[in-house]
Structures are given as C-alpha cells and as structure tokens.
Amino acid sequence: MLNKSIPYFNVIMKRRSGMKIPKSPLLPPGFSFVFFSEGKEEKWAEIEASVGEFSTIKEGLNYFQANYLPFLDDLKKRLLFVQNENGEEIGTITSWWNMSANDRVPSIHWFAVKENYQGLGIGKALVFESIKTLSILEGNKDIYLHTQTWSYKAIGLYQKFGFEIVSDESFGHYKNDYESAMPILRELFNDKSN
Questions:
Q1: Helix, strand, or coil here: 67?
Q2: Residues 13/176, Cβ–Cβ less than 8 Å
Q3: Which residues does 5 contact at the CB level (< 8 Å), separation at least 6?
C-alpha cells in the first residue's frame, strides 16, 4: 500500500548497465507467472487500485486503455502478473520503456502486489523477472524507474536489485524531486532500522 500520510515527492532510480542479474528469487509454492492477454486489463486496474495507485478500478482501467492497450503486442511480452493457486491475479509489473529525446529508455512501470500477499517474496520475484525481461528485450542498457516517497518500502526493494536513487537525472516526462524527497526517505529508513 502507498503511505499517503507522508509528503509526496517524485523519486528517480537507475540500475546501471553491465550489472549482473542477481540470483532468481522463487515464487512461493502455489503461485505462478502469467503474461498479459486480452481481457486482463481489468485485473491490472484492480491490483493497482487495491494498493492506492488509482481511486477506483474504472480510473485505472481508463488509464490502461489509453496508455497501454494500443501496444497490445508489447503488452503480451512485457506485462507480467502473478497468480495465486486459484488463478487470481494478485501482483503485476510492466517491463516497458519511455522516450527521452530520441532515445528509448528501458523502464519499470506499475509494480504492485495486493496487500494480503505482500511480504511473501512475490515482489522480489516480479522485480527480478522485469529486470531479466528488459535485459532480453532492450539489451544491456541502464534501466530506470519512477517512484515516489509514498512507495518507500518498494524503494528499499529496488535497492536490493541494484537500483540507485539518482540526484540529477530523469527520463521520459518524469520530474525528479531529489532534494525534497531525500530528507523524508532518510528519516523513514533510519526509523525502520531502529
């Protein structure tokens, strides 16, 4: 879940090209990966709304239809779900790209795991699979992601996979609020270690 009780600031993270892909974390027993197929857009919106990224499933669905559905062939190899033992989609990540000037920049979009399934290692497995997918589809390039202070727990997870918070870079259309975000993140991470 997003922690909307703290101030919101944009955070940009980068995983440098050439880094080894870490050892694959396994999904817990009973869970499996499945790529996007037509008709699963509402499942994506449901997951994202469940963690607070959208106010309603409808809002998430509208966003998805406008921004991703036009790229249906790409979605089928870039948008990954985790399903539970009942076949319900409970987590997702998108191994996408953004355009910066004339360059296509590999980037992770829309990583979320439903609250009841957080803390089981599903998020680690999704991030690993996204890095692997981007390395295959985009080559040995820097991988970026945009996140926010509200997602500070995810920031800690990204750091375990070699992502670093960057102070003076960005990609696509994203703003970098490094100077405002870092005091909040330092306090949150210090509180967590006590």
A1: helix
A2: no
A3: none
Average pLDDT over residues 31-59: 97
The answer to whether 101 and 41 are in contact (CB under 8 A) is: no
CATH of the domain at 116: 3.40.630.30
Residue 52 lies in a domain: yes
Q: Is residue 1 part of a domain?
A: no
Count of domains forming the chain: 1
CA separation for the pair 111, 148 (Å, rounded)? 12
Instruction: Please tell me the distance from the alpha carbon of residue 61 to that of residue 69, in angstroms, as a whole number.
Output: 10
pLDDT in tens, 111-133: 999 999 999 999 999 999 999 99
Question: Residue 35: which domain range?
Answer: 10-193
| Residue 133 within any structural domain of the chain | yes
Which DSSP letter does residue 85 get?
T
Q: Nearest CA to 107 among 6, 9, 13, 5?
A: 13
